[in-house]
Amino acid sequence: MNAVPREWHRYTSGQRLARFTFYFFIVAAVVASARTVEIIPEFLYDAPEQMKDLLTRMWPPEFRYYPDGIHDALIETIHIASLGTLLSIFIALPFGLLAARNLTPSPTLNYLAKLVLVSSRSVNSLVWALLFVGIFGPGALAGTLAIAFRSVGFVGKLVGEALEETPRGPIEALEAAGASTGQRVWYGYWPQIRPAFWSIVLLRWDINVRESAVLGLVGAGGIGMAMQAAIDLFQWERVAMILLSIFIIVIVAEIAVTALRKRIL
Fold first, then answer.
1. What does the alpha-carbon distance between residue 250 and residue 265 come to, in Å, rounded to a whole number?
2. Quick one: what percent of the chain has pLDDT higher than 90?
3. Per the CB 3.0–4.6 Å rule, which of 29, 77, 104, 110 could disulfide with 222?
4. Residue 90 to residues 78, 132, 234, Cα–Cα distance (Å)
5. pTM, whole model, 2 decimals?
6. Where is 207: in which H helix or E strand?
7. Under a CB-based contact definition with an 8 Å cutoff, are residues 210 and 126 in contact?
8. Which pLDDT band holds residue 38 (cuts at 50, 70, 90)?
9. Would you say 216 and 143 are in contact if contact means Cβ atoms under 8 Å apart?
10. What is the signed CA dihedral for 260, 261, 264, 265, rounded to 10 degrees?
């Protein structure tokens, strides 16, 4: 009796069905989105000409506008990002400790902390800015609070995950020596998560520099307010100078974060 030759397949029948279902839903979602998004063909045809006209209006940038109209707003943007990041650390650390299951055995506190962190991340920084502008009025305070509340979820979640991934050896040694909870956190957990903590903080500050540059569009201070004023007055050369300044400060922030990471980590 001849044996039936075995045929090798990369995926099982269940895996092929799952892959087909996954791709089918992706295609269906794309088709449904394309049908519901209102695209005006006339605007698409005219887009290259409009883009050319806009770039022509923006060139050359108005460099003489920088000292009086951009510099102070740019410094304010950096202050908003820095103070917002610092404030978020103080708010996020307690929630990060509560979100770590190995530090917080209470499921209720654990889930409440995670709910706060998820709520912070689910609201965009511009929405936070609109909320605080409505409460405190336009200015840098609203932008700083928007950056802080947006960053709480990011910092708290990653700190909590870093705490959960720490090896148990040093912690068990401190517990055997009779160390309190605070001593276990300071002498056991902190030395192990310190590199990750500073990496999280520097990354978040780098992100906040970018986000704070646009908060002024809703009145939350910084360079965005200068850009909104220039756009409203159709001063496209100044808009170009503001965009160039934002690009440069983002590059400088990236270089600074890289240098600090090398020194600290």
1. 22
2. 3
3. 77
4. 19, 19, 41
5. 0.78
6. helix 190-215
7. no
8. confident
9. yes
10. -170
Tokens of 39: 């695209």
3-class DSSP string for 86-111: HHHHHHHHHHHHHHCCCCCCCHHHHH
- Give pLDDT tens digits for 68-127: 878 888 888 889 889 999 999 998 888 888 888 877 778 888 889 888 888 888 888 888
Angstrom distance (rounded) from CA 251 to CA 247? 6
Q: State both tokens at 138.
A: 């336009």
Alpha carbon 202 to chain centroid distance? 12
In the predicted structure, residue 10 carries a pLDDT above the cut 80: no
Other beta carbons less than 10 A from residue 262's beta carbon: 8
Instruction: Tell me, rounded to whole angstroms, the distance of Cα 17 from its chain centroid.
Output: 36
Three-class SS state of 146: helix
Which token pair is 224? 């965005």
Q: Residue 211, class by beta-carbon neighbours within 10 Å (0-12 exposed, 13-18 middle, 19+ buried)?
A: buried
Instruction: Give the mean model confidence (pLDDT) for residues 121-137.
Output: 86
Is the model's pLDDT at 8 over the cut of 80? Answer: no
Buried b (16+ CB within 10 A) or exposed e, 135-150: eeebbbbbbbbbbbbb
What Cα–Cα distance (Å) separates residue 188 from each residue in 160, 174, 193?
15, 7, 9
